[in-house]
Structures are given as structure tokens and as C-alpha cells.
Amino acid sequence: MIRTLNFTGRRRIPREAARITLRPDVGGAVAFDVELSLDGLELPPTAKVFIEAAFKSAFRRFDCGTVGEFAPPENRRLDGLPQPLLAHFRVKVVEPAAAGPGLLLAVADHIAPAGLKGRAQQRVALFRVSYESEMKEEIWRLDYDDAGPILELQQMTGMKEIARREDFMALVYPEVMRQILHRVLFVEKIDDPQADPNSWQARWLRFGAQQAGEASPALDAGVVSPEHEDWIGEAAAGFSRRQKLVSKFKRRFGGGEAESL
């Protein structure tokens, strides 16, 4: 059954108020632990607390008791998520209603977990990497969910090691950057990193500005222009230049003078 929530007057829960850690569970499953502080938000103690884990269109919802008696369920396995290590989380506080939709009092979106205890975390600062995608004739592609871009890589032996190589980075990462910034400006129509500073789009606009040496041109009534394409190109070139990708590529394949060490 699909539940309807009334979003009127909702409050924002700081992301740092929720600390979520992934851990291995029985049978190779992945579960999560959570520490949550709602102090200072003046929420009614009887309001219900839910934690949702999502990856792309799949999600799991966990009833965690109330504000006054926060009690996560014993079973916190992320069953049903195709790639639980790449999940992002939401915290929702809902005031139950006798009839009609529940009132959503407070929410925290796009919470990244601390990682799986005992294993290397498969996350990078600006996008997530999936090594479990099955693609017919592609080595890599970008996909998106509510938490931002996901770099999907062909499922094959040794792909994790290949993705860390300098030649792979030189050939793939500047184009990844181009595509993501193109989506932010041309599809999402977002040009102000301060409008929602914690969103993935804002993080990418700030990163692009660092690489390009200047902020993105403002959108005029949501219309993009060749200036925006030029800025995206400068950002990708700036990233490649800062990471010395071309000189590293040439050094590896003998296509020019080696970089001075």
C-alpha cells in the first residue's frame, strides 16, 4: 500500500544528526546501525520515526518507534536493494493522523552511510561507483538516483583495479565530469550552489568552479547557452590538468616526454 504524507511545514533535520553505519550480517547480507539525535527540533514525542534506505527506484522503510522512544527494529538488513553498499538513507518524522495523510514534521535526505565495517568503502566524494552492473556493449555509463550520479562499470574480473589506473582515469573521468555538469545545468536547470548547498547538484557546481577557476555562468530564465558549454569544458580541462592526466597517460604509453618527478 502506498502511503501519502502531508509535507506542509516540515522541518529539516541536519544530516549530521543521523550517523548510519553499514555492517555485514548473516548469510552475506548487509545491515545498518543508526545513531540519531533529534534534540532541539521540538518534535512531539509521539511522532513516528522512519528510516528509509534507497538505491535508484528500490527502497526499504524501517519503523524506528517514536521521537520519545527511538527503537530501530532488530532486523535492519537491506534485503531487496540490488546494491546495498551504494544505498543512501532518509530520516522521516511523521505525526500520525486518525484519518487522512500523516503530517511529515521533519526530514533528512540523502544521508550517506559511513561505510561497511571491515571492508573498503566503495564511495568517492562526488559520485558513487558500481562494480556490479551488467552492460552488454559498454564499459562504463552514468546513472542517477535521488542522491546523485552513479558511475556504473562493466562487471568483469579486475575492474576495480582497472578503474584505479591512471590511463582509465585519463580516458573516462573528464568525460564523466562533462556529463554530470551538463545534466546539472541543461537538465536540472540549476546554477546556484547556495540555493540548496547540500544537494549533489550544488556540490558539483562548486567542484566545477574549483576546476574551471570561476563559477558557472548564471542561467537566464533557465536557458543554457554556449557559455555554459565552454565553462563545462574548462572545468573538465582544469580537472585533467590538476590531476596531470595527460602527462601520466603519455608516460605510461610512451607517447611523449615523461613527467618530471
Description:
Residues 1-8 and 118-124 have low confidence and may be disordered. 25% of the residues lie in helices and 28% in strands. It is globular, with a radius of gyration of 21 Å. The chain starts with a strand and ends in an 8-residue tail after the last helix. It folds into two domains: 5-111; 128-253, no CATH class. It has five helices and eleven strands; from the N terminus they run βββββββββββααααα. Strands 1, 2, 5, 6, 7 and 8 form a six-stranded mixed beta sheet that branches. Helix 2 (166-187) packs across helix 3 (200-212), helix 2 (166-187) packs antiparallel against helix 4 and helix 3 (200-212) crosses helix 4. It is an alpha/beta fold and 261 residues long.
Q: How is the topology of this model organized?
A:
Elements: E1 5-6, E2 11-12, E3 18-24, E4 30-36, E5 48-55, E6 58-66, E7 88-95, E8 102-111, E9 128-133, E10 140-145, E11 148-154, H1 159-163, H2 166-187, H3 200-212, H4 226-242, H5 245-253
Parallel strand pairs: 1-8, 2-8, 9-11
Antiparallel strand pairs: 3-4, 5-6, 5-7, 7-8, 10-11
Helix pairs in contact: 2-3, 2-4, 2-5, 3-4
